[in-house]
């Protein structure tokens, strides 16, 4: 297989995985009364360190005002709460509530149960994980952007502790 065909087929596979995962999450979101993006936000709110609204917006590929509106809707649903930042009164920290953590856990379970990667053995999944991390640039010295884009978790505590979002002034 030549290099161009290989690259095209790799992208075909990535799009197929994305379509399958997105379809499964879309169904769960519909059943839960959430939008696709709200489901994605709940996932990201509990992954890695606290995030600014801008970082969340960038990871969701939306603008900051859209992210803020989504946070408002999630707060009305009782899935997140705003708290004062301990050192900067201009910043609000958004935390998953117990209901938000439960919904996030439901999303994770749903995804794991229907994952296209479940067909692979542990060793194959570990190898694929390493290759995908390498492809997005995660793990390279000084390259935090690739890890963030991949949703790679940094060392964090429990979902409740890691489930925060710093929001700057509106």
Provide structural commentary:
The protein is of the alpha+beta class. It contains eight helices and four strands. The chain has a four-stranded mixed beta sheet. Helix 1 (3-32) crosses helix 5 (98-114) and helix 3 crosses helix 4 (64-76). The longest helix has 30 residues, at 3-32. The radius of gyration is 17 Å and the shape is globular. The protein starts with a helix and ends with a strand.
Summarize this, please?
The chain has helices at 3-32, 36-45, 53-60, 64-76, 98-114, 122-135, 144-149, 159-162; strands at 51-52, 80-84, 92-96, 164-167. It has 170 residues and is an alpha+beta fold.
How would a textbook summarize the main sheet? 4 strands, mixed
Tally of alpha and pi helices: 8
Radius of gyration: 17 Å
Beta-strand fraction estimate: 5-15%
Q: What is the CA–CA distance across the termini?
A: 52 Å
| Average pLDDT number | 78
Strand order of the largest sheet: 1-4-3-2
Label the overall shape.
globular
Write the layout of secondary structure elements.
Blueprint: H1 3-32, H2 36-45, E1 51-52, H3 53-60, H4 64-76, E2 80-84, E3 92-96, H5 98-114, H6 122-135, H7 144-149, H8 159-162, E4 164-167
Parallel strand pairs: 1-4
Antiparallel strand pairs: 2-3, 3-4
Helix pairs in contact: 1-5, 3-4
